[in-house]
Every structure is written in structure tokens, then in C-alpha cells.
Backbone:
């Protein structure tokens, strides 16, 4: 296995297609990138497909400029019978020092689904929790 | 003036470019569309530019299929000195009856900004509230 | 029912992805947005799916700058046995005053289709006309 | 010089991102591709930048399926002092025989502009016409 | 038949959506456009569908600015039993003189496939070669 | 510092917008994703901006289906005075087991540039090599 279950890192460059008319990352694009991270974090935890059921609070601490490297990290903070909570933290990475400055924080509730996209119960999920979270 | 200040309606068709691999609207795309609605609702209320500071809870009640008409309505529920809360409600519109079924609900906190994208105080905002909300 | 049959309003923000190298809305993007409006106006009138058969004259009165709010309104000016004409009018909305300045005007001929995208006769369409246009 | 002034050929593959929910080329995407062709045809004729002022009648003869090769040809049918008319003809190319079946026809009025996007008079355009059209 | 088998020309305008944060064509977008050209060149030679098996060396001679006309030409340099090599040359076209300056060069190995995307043997390909390359 | 200099990992979900008409990842999109990885790997090594100068051989071992998790890993194999070679390896990750199956391999030559996108000499690059590669 690679790293902790449910913890994935996405890296993205902010290109003109992601920006608003201020030349910074459009809030809606930030949410889309965080959703993709939450999807991949959830999929990694559940080892199966997931869909989004709820987006909890998301904070935008600072504008993200065109050309920035944006690093998104996930971890799973809660796992129930059929749903789980994926926390996503987004940081701008300084090009010269690689220091990370947190600009985005949010949590997303994902639901495990079968191949047709219908919710499914997560027998194996409970074990996964006791194994890796507790 | 047209309608209540801060209340705008967006209509969108769900095209393949908006879908995930289940053939339904990707959650991240839903959030992007809601963000655009919140931006336009905030801009309409403030009569100036806004940026997103916080996304409150967003609920996804049901999957939205390819080809659906998605109707997004906004209203402003709170307005402070420099920020305001825009509620967004997204409905799938039945093609035959035009009945609306609510599938998305969320709220977004927007901040008024000047031409350079920096936050600005909202002297005129307070009046707008007393006029139109209270 | 909400408003007149076939009359829908779309609102869009002009983002960098919509612009040409002059920093204004690309003509082809304007036509794409008007087509989406015509599709939704036609769908609303027919209460079923439609495809575009013909784009009549479209006028571009003025360039539309990055960051503009673009408001597109439709109405149905003609309805035949299986086709109908949807007029689309696009305006830039002044952010401070919400005044609308017309920048785009065009008309689109849409044809009613069944679920497989094949044209279908419109028995109910004739009634719709006598009811709401005449 | 390569070919007749103002005559360019664009070739495109219809990918999922261009389609509507019927799995065929969305009418708005067809107009966008034709606009790009008209822009390039006008630029080639004028030997300078152009913007779209008017879209004349465009006919959609048949749906264009996902995966099709779409060939767009332009020619200039009229050139005035500062504007010109670019005709665009779009054909689906049969993969096995390379035979072309016309599916799109339209004309676009383009205006010559300077580097800032402002209309400019076309002294040299008149000569170009007498040379190459008449 | 139109021109030499396997030789196609694509023309594209560099729009903001194709650029990086330097305001020039993003290298990845250049490769995507060249891939589309290689696909169309291969399809034209094989008279059937193809997929990419290998991208040979691609050289980027100079940055391509926003608003440029980019002309991509293909020719087939090698054809085997089931695969072929498509060379792609990309030039920026000067707007005033239509002179071409080569900025991109690469070659792509394509494999003939059936309708399901599976590789297929190319009996007719050998004949095509003796006919048109040798 | 986090991990080896120049080694970054990108994760992507294959959505409909990335696919061709076979329902698999379009080769050109694969190259675009690999280019983004090479850009980020180069930026991480150089601690400054880079542009692509050359794409070496890229192999496509297998089609990548819609909905796949695609993992792209980079490492720097060569660093000169002003340029460096970034190797990119792309794997499909099995959702159930998280096992990686290599589907894409390529190398990209990147050049260090200043803020205006012009090449710059890399005094500090030589030290970086002796420190971390040798």
C-alpha cells in the first residue's frame, strides 16, 4: 500500500482557463479541484467508487494567482456504514522554496456506490476504520 | 430594477463535458455552477464585484442526468459591512411539465471587492439591507 | 407555469476561457451561448427536446469585455408543425446600475425531436401556438 | 502564396466535449467551429486581424456523429471598404472513401480591425478584391 | 481523392484557453494539437480508425504567442503491416505575409484499429504504400 | 523538503472531456497530462519556471478507460547548464487493490526560464545535480 488509506495528493498549475477576470483562480474552479481530490481520497479509502453527498464548510483564505502550483492533500476524518468525510487542504507552493501556504480548507461527505452509481453498504468499510483510523 | 436585489436565476443544460464516468453531473461541476450563481447573485446585490470567501454547507440530494435542464436560483440571506451570504438552490426541471425538483442546496459567503480584487467596505450595502431585506 | 412559454433567461459571466486574443468575448463563443439559449427556449416551448436546424441572422453590435455579465433572453416568434423560431437577445448588464445594453441579436430555427434525436410531428404544438402566441 | 486569398480549410474530429446529450455535435459547437473558420478565412484575406460583425444564415443539414471528421472550407464572396463576407461550408468526411457530405453552410460578415480591436479602413482591401475576386 | 494520402493540414488560432501563464501556447496543448493532426493524418492514410502507440521526438523551436495562426501539416513517412509513422510540422503563419515559420516538429506512430478500438492487420495498407510512397 | 528534488506525483480521473470516440483517454490528452507533470517536475527541480524544449519518445502501452485513476510520477534523469530531462511514468491504479499498471512512459526536456519566459543560465542547477543526482 502507498501511504495512509484515503490520503492522496493532487498537484495542479493554475492556467488561464482556471481564472476569473481578476487573473486569479475562480472560486468555482477551486471547488471543482477540491471535489476531484475528495473523490480520489474517498475512492482510495473505500477501494471502490464514491459520489459526493454533501460539501461541508470550505474556506478561501487568499486569492491564488495565475501560474501558481496548487497542492491539494486529503485525509479521511470519519467513516460510517456507507459514507465517509474527506478533508481537503489546498496550499500554494512557493516555487523557490517549495514552502506551502494554506489557501483552501474544506470537507466533503462522500458515499460509496456500485458500478451503476447507486449507494451500497460498506461492510468492509467498518473494518478499514478500526484498522487504520482508530 | 428587475426582481429582488441579489436574486438571479441561471439555467444550464448538462452536457457530456459536465459529467463524470457514471453519466451524471460531476459534483465538482455542480459546485462550479453554484459558485457562478453565487457570484452573480452577490454582484447583483452589491452592484459591484465580489469574490468567494467561504462555501457553507452544500447538499446533493440526487444525481443529475446528462441532458437535464438545471435551474439555479439565488437569494441573499444576510448582508454585513463587507460580506454577504448568497443562498443557491438548484433544481432539475422536468422537460414535459417544467416542474422543478430540488437537487442542490448551498450557501456561499461573498466579499465585495474593488477593481483590483481587494476587499472594500460597503457603506452603501447597509442601506441596501434596510431597504430590501428588513 | 413560470413566465411565457418559450421565454427563458440565461446569465453568464465572461471568463478568460470565453475570450479571444483581444480580451473580448470570441464571436464563436457568443454564438455558442446564444445556441444554448435557443435550445432551452425551444425546449421550454415544445416541452420536449429540440435540435437546431438553422441559424438566421445574428448581429454583433459591440465587443463584450472580460468580466461582463451577459444576459440572454429568448422568445418564440413563430411555431409551425414541427419547427419553431426562437429569437435571442443578448445584453451586457452594467454592474452598478443593472441597465442592459443590447449587444447580440439573432434568431434560431429549432426542430422538435424524439428521444433518439429524430424529428417528430408536433400535434400539441399547434394548440400551444393558438393558446399563447395568437 | 498558398491557394486563393481567403480560402482556408479547417479539419476537426468530433470528440465527446463537442457533443450534446444525443451524442451528436451540439449546434452551438458547430457555430463556434464555423466562426473560427470565418475568422481564419477573413484574416487570410485581409492579412490582418478581423472580428465578427454579423452571422448570416447558417443551415444544419444533418446531425454529425461523435468521432466524425469535420472539414470546414471558407471562401470570400464579398469585400467592401472595411468589411467582407466569408462563406463557410462544413462537410463530414467518410473515413473509408474520404467523400465529403455537406452538413453545414453559412456566411459570416467580418470587419478588419487594428491591434486594439478597433475597426479600420481597408485601403488595400479594394485592390485585393480587383486582383483576386473580379 | 484530395492531395497525397495521409497529408492533412490543420489550422488553429491560439486562444487564451491554450496558453500557459507566460501568455504563450502551453507545451502540452501543442502536443495535443499535434496528436489530433497525427490522428487525422493516420486516419486519412489508413482510411479507417487509428490510435496512438508512440510519440517520437518532438521539438519546440520557439514560443507561440496568443492570437497566432498555427498551421499543422502531416505526411506519412513509414507504413508497416499494422502501424504507420505520421510526421507533423507546426508553423506560425505571419498574418501580414502568410509566411510560415516552423516552430514544432514531431513524429507519431499510429496503429490501425477496428470499430472497438482493437488493433487490426492492414492487408490493404501494404498496397497503399507501394502505390503511393514507393 | 518533501521527497527527492524533481519527483512529483500527479493524480487524475479520466472524465468524458478527456476521451476520444472509443471512450478511452485520447492520446493527445495523455500527452497534455504528461506535459503538466513534466512542467511541475522541472519546476520542482529548478525551483523556478521552466518551458518545454523537446519531448522525447513517449510510449502508450494500453488504452486507459473512462473513470480510471491515472497516476503520473516524474523524476529527473539529467540536468545540464540550462536544461534538464524529466522522465514521466503514467500508471492506471486499480480501484480495488491500488496496484499500478504502467500505461505511459516518456521523457521531456525542459529549459529553465526567467519571469518573462526567456531561457536563463542555471548556476545553481549544477550544484543541485552534484548534491542530489550524483
Residues:
Amino acid at each position: 500500500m502507498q501511504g495512509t488509506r484515503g490520503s492522496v495528493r493532487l498537484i495542479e498549475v493554475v492556467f488561464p482557463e482556471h481564472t476569473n477576470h481578476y487573473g486569479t483562480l475562480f472560486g468555482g474552479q477551486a471547488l471543482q479541484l477540491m471535489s476531484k481530490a475528495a473523490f480520489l481520497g474517498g475512492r482510495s479509502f473505500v477501494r471502490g467508487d464514491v459520489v459526493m453527498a454533501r460539501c461541508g464548510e470550505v474556506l478561501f483564505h487568499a486569492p491564488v494567482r495565475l501560474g501558481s502550483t496548487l497542492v491539494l492533500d486529503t485525509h479521511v476524518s470519519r467513516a460510517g456504514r456507507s459514507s465517509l468525510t474527506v478533508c481537503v487542504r489546498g496550499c500554494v507552493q512557493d516555487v523557490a522554496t517549495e514552502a506551502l501556504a494554506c489557501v483552501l480548507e474544506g470537507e466533503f461527505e462522500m458515499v460509496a456506490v456500485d458500478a451503476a452509481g447507486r449507494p451500497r453498504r460498506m461492510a468492509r468499510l467498518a473494518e478499514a476504520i478500526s484498522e487504520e483510523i482508530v
In short: Helices of chain F lie at 27-46, 123-132.
